[in-house]
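Example (one chain per record):
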Amino acid sequence: MYQKEHNIAVVANMSAGKSTFINAMFGDDILPSSSQATSDCPIYIYSDNEPNNNMAIIDFHNKESRGLSKENLKKDLKEYAKKDSLVKKEKYKNVMKIDLYWKFYSFVNKPNIRNYYVLIDTPGPNNSDEFGEQHFRITQNIILGHASKVIYLLDYKQIDANLEVRKNNLWGWIEKRKNMDKDFEVLFVINKIDEALIDNSKIPEVNSFTSRAEYNENIKKYWNFHEKKAMEKIRKIALKVGFTYPPVIAVSSEYMKLNRMQNELSWDDEDKLDAFKKKFKTIFNDDWEQEFHEYIGSHINIFNFSKNKERSA
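Predicted structure:
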């Protein structure tokens, strides 16, 4: 029997790649993902070995709940999880909450263990359309009360735009909750970290070369240069809002997901993944595979923050 249930909320501003991050944890495309805000309600995700896995229960504001079996889940769940404005059929609208039972690629709650972990996919609180206020309140209430822990996902490309602590933004709510509960934990995750490789390639010292081999050595020398700068920015804000030893990690959800789904990829996605892996093979030779997995974040454990290791200093 489980002695304690831990609700771990995944929070992010719009377009940070939250759904792609969770899909990477599944190793499958389960949740809808888009550059615009898509999730309209909290999704409670249970990963275990129970026989009722691979199903979902949809709770509505104005009608009785309904279940989704494994056969229809992957197709219909994406519609139920979307904002009402993005779906045409009335049956997909007015969803209040979704309970999703699906095994994670990297973690399964096992019987007879002390703790049971539930992941909560929250709506983006900075949505500016007519659903913005609803999303704002849902995510605020989860951070301030319902979540045992939080995973705060940030877009590498938007780091500088997300460093302000205000009363009514994610940083402000996290600070308020930390003041209420000194044991409150947050895992800070910088997503889309592969974009830093482009920034690293623009460093003048990297571009001072006379051969391909010298260029590769320069890239290796400045490996993780912009990644570390981004992590330090987040670490400073986390310290400011009350975390003494804030865990900050960086991942590429997109390439983690593609790598875990590689037997089901389209040819275009196969080419995309192969091209990305080639960068590591060229630079690290025999050690490329370990470097690749560490870079995209395959090693992280989102259910136990203390086991997550930061990118090397």
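Caption: The chain is about 35% helix and 15% strand.
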